[in-house]
Amino acid sequence: MPTPATTLRTLAGVGLLTLALVTPAWGRPAPPQPRAAEGPSTLCAAAGTLRGADGQSAGVSLCAGSGTPQLGVSAPANCARTGTGTRYVCLTDGTWTARRGGTTVATGTLPGSADYPGPGTYDLTAAVRVRSTPAGVDLKGTVHATLTLTAPKAKATHAITVDRPELRRAATTTLTYTVRRDSDDGDGSARFGLIGEEGSGVRIATDDPRCVSPLVGRYPSTTRLRYSLDCALTDLQPGHPDTVRVRVTVGPNCSTVVSKLGYWMPKGQALYTGGMLAGPTVTCR
Asked: pTM for this one?
């Protein structure tokens, strides 16, 4: 007959075996979690120091914002001048070029933006002028930085197509634009605009009641820009595109016609919401 001590040792052994066979939930490795999509962010890198003959210096950085439809580029700087304890505030302007894999993918002014080409390693070069407040630093030069952006390219929410790529000189051409909304976000409202070259004599007209030629001048002026149209679209839905048919009359001087679309997105009460989409440019010969 087992003694009480033997029985306790046996029960303890069974308990330990059970614990060894059954791993507690808090001891198991957590299952991999899906990686959240990267949101908008700004990445900066030192791009160079400009120096002047009188002890002036400006340390310039290049910054690029990603995660939105636009690639925003800026060039903040820190200004100094030897022999003075003045705290300067820097003003920078200029132009920038972004290259990826040796190919130029975007250009602009500082600060400024262009369509975001997507993730990758970018070589940013900027021709900058740095001035200070109060006066004391005024330098020009070229700076360079390499930035790796990882945010995915934002998925297009709207699209514009046109049935003809070209206008004919001294003729009237009918163009049919198709405006499409592919995103479930936002709503069906959009402002579709067309504009020709001022002073070329081009005229853009339509029978579509949603479109008007913009009114210019002070009240009570009734002058309208006949080389431009502004159309209010209200029923854009995924699977239900809108079409706008226009007549473009070109005289002896050719004119291109560009198109744009402004649209709302979620958080409509926010001051800056929605976006602007560039449509196709119709050329002329």
From this structure: 0.71
- If you ran DSSP here, which 8-state letter would residue 27 be given? G
| Burial classification of residue 161, based on how many CB atoms lie within 10 Å of its CB (0-12 exposed, 13-18 middle, 19 or more buried) | middle
Lowest-confidence range among 109-118, 148-157, 227-236?
A: 148-157
Of all helices (H) and strands (E), which one includes residue 10?
A: helix 4-21
Cα pseudo-dihedral 133, 136, 138, 142, rounded to 10: -90
Q: Are 79 and 90 in contact (CB under 8 A)?
A: yes
The helix, strand and coil proportions of the chain, stated in percent and rounded to the nearest 5, come to 5, 50, 40
Omega prior to 134 cis, within 30 of 0: yes
What pLDDT digit, counting tens, does each position of 32-68 carry?
A: 544 445 567 899 999 999 999 999 999 999 999 987 7
